[in-house]
Task: structure prediction
Amino acid sequence: MRVVVAGASGDLGSRVARQVADRGHEVVPASRRTGVDLVSGDGLRETLEGADAVVNCADDPSRGDWVTVYGARRLADAAAAQGVHLVHISIVGIDDHPLTYYRRKLRAEQGIAAAGGPATVLRATQFHSLAAFFAQKLSVGPLTATIGEMAFQPVDTDWVAERLADLALGPRPTAYLRATDVAGPDVLTIGEIETLLRAHRGASAPHVVRLPPLGRTLRAFAERRNVPTPGEAQTGGRSFAEWVAAGEH
Ligand SMILES: NC(=O)c1ccc[n+]([C@@H]2O[C@H](COP(=O)([O-])OP(=O)(O)OC[C@H]3O[C@@H](n4cnc5c(N)ncnc54)[C@H](OP(=O)(O)O)[C@@H]3O)[C@@H](O)[C@H]2O)c1
Result:
């Protein structure tokens, strides 16, 4: 099969491209560095010609709606027009989450559904690297701040890439489809995440300071709206502890 990977130069996209190639299929990388711009539409139609599927891992949160919402819609319209199966990565728990980026991801999904072509949306929880980033941002010296009951169910990026490759190489849906959400094996508090990171470098566990959830966005994290309801998501991939032990952070 011929699979276009939008955002193939990025963290997730490069892993999807590797997965598809390792399974013996043709990968067509697509991003601005290969002359494909989802915002302007440059190079899009030509790149999709003869493709069986396109996996959308392209994004640029710093550009507001432009890539996340409008770029995804432009790609969905082009894929629908050419009968190419679009596989799109989204985020668990965005239906009722006030974080601006999550609201954009939800509008992107709605735009893809409205485009009307064969499309599969896969929602994943935060990647291990992002959970580690949050824990480090919330830590100063021996202290780690947490907000309410804030927690993550972080997932291995390689496993998400595997699932995206499975979907791109699998049967094409007849219309818009939401695949089963994916998450890592464990729900971890910020304190537990920071403890694992510190233990890896031989440091003792942090002193956790609990802060009140001020504002709607922090309240949503404090209420764990980013964590799937038990049993609702498919879980798999390396645990956060295994990922830390592998030294990939
Ligand atoms: N990090 C997480 O925890 C997490 C969790 C769930 C879902 N996700 C989703 O995973 C996706 C990928 O994230 P990532 O961290 O892999 O991103 P990334 O490393 O920042 O890669 C972004 C990619 O998008 C391309 N791109 C940016 N602007 C573009 C444009 N105008 N036209 C075409 N391509 C463009 C970039 O390549 P060029 O610069 O060459 O254009 C790059 O290849 C995002 O949609 C995110 O929402 C992330």
